[in-house]
Design brief:
Helix 8 packs antiparallel against helix 9, helix 8 runs antiparallel to helix 11 and helix 10 runs antiparallel to helix 13. With 301 residues, this protein is mainly α.
Length: 301
């Protein structure tokens, strides 16, 4: 598709794959600069996933401190799903990076509201949705973070306005692509391996969420209200939507693994700190053994 000229690409997108149109156009421009071989095809995904890892580290630092952010970034890059889509010539690494960085900007604007940061958050969220429509499922997770963190009413109202603008801007493409929904006719009930991976990460994330985290300020997002909804809601909503029409594939909401990485990073930060009381030492040993067991076993298909 990316080897086609824009004049050839446009008629195709009117009948199939409109949801990937932005990615095809970007790759078309990329191939005009580079040779269009396998390395050129995969390199944008590598760069995008590296950017996503950096965003996870910065977000973890914003929410839980420097060490927690560093561990979150390291956990993120070790996840098999992340490694898989970092080397595939598809849009999902780019979508993941855009969602992660929009979440980071949300954390920044919650701490220090400004029109510039709100505009950046809206632009990144819309870009992610235009790259793949199911990125819109990150917005309910962001909304839950804003509400559960107890942010001031002005911040909640501003988020509603920005999120509403993103949804309105996405509606034309969503309505158009609904006419191409037969492209998903190959999907049946969600793959049990994919669901098993999701459930394993959710259970691991819930366990990690029990580790103590420094409490954020009054006007700041907190780690658990950000990470848990991001981990759970996008996939859960997509599975529910699949009851109406099968459309669940784990890569469509790949960015949910960032929620697990944030929780695991904060837990590792706590586990690896010098132990205090004996009871805490015992608990940390339990968390350490579980953490070492969870990450290697969360294998994608």
């Amino acid at each position: 598709m990316a080897h086609r000229t824009l004049a050839e690409l446009w008629p195709t997108l009117q009948t199939v794959d409109a949801v990937h149109g932005l990615y095809y156009v970007l790759m078309r421009g990329w191939f005009l600069v580079f040779d269009g071989g396998v390395v050129a095809l995969r390199l944008p995904s590598v760069v995008a996933m590296a950017a996503a890892a950096a965003g996870v580290a910065l977000l973890g630092r914003q929410l839980a401190g420097r060490r927690a952010g560093l561990f979150a970034g390291l956990v993120f890059v070790l996840l098999p799903m992340v490694q898989q889509y970092a080397q595939e010539g598809r849009s999902y690494a780019m979508v993941c990076a855009l969602v992660v960085w929009s979440t980071y900007l949300l954390a920044r604007v919650a701490a220090r509201p400004s029109r510039r940061l709100w505009a950046g958050y809206g632009a990144l969220s819309l870009a992610a949705c235009l790259m793949h429509e199911f990125a819109v499922l990150a917005l309910p997770a962001h909304g839950a973070a804003v509400v559960l963190s107890g942010l001031p009413r002005a911040v909640r109202r501003a988020w509603c306005g920005v999120a509403g603008a993103v949804v309105v801007a996405l509606v034309p493409m969503a309505l158009f692509s609904m006419g191409q929904s037969e492209q998903l006719s190959w999907l049946q009930w969600p793959n049990p391996v994919q669901l098993g991976t999701f459930i394993a990460l959710v259970l691991g994330g819930l366990l990690c969420s029990r580790a103590p985290v420094a409490r954020a300020g009054v006007q700041r997002l907190r780690l658990r209200p950000v990470a848990l909804p991001l981990l759970v809601l996008p996939t859960a909503l997509l599975v529910l939507l699949s009851q109406l029409k099968p459309m669940y594939v784990d890569r469509y909401v790949l960015y949910y693994v960032a929620g697990f990485a944030l929780l695991a990073g904060a837990a590792l930060d706590w586990v690896l700190r010098p132990a205090g009381r004996r009871g805490q030492t015992r608990r940390r040993l339990v968390y350490r053994s579980v953490a070492l067991a969870v990450v290697p076993t969360t294998r994608s298909r």
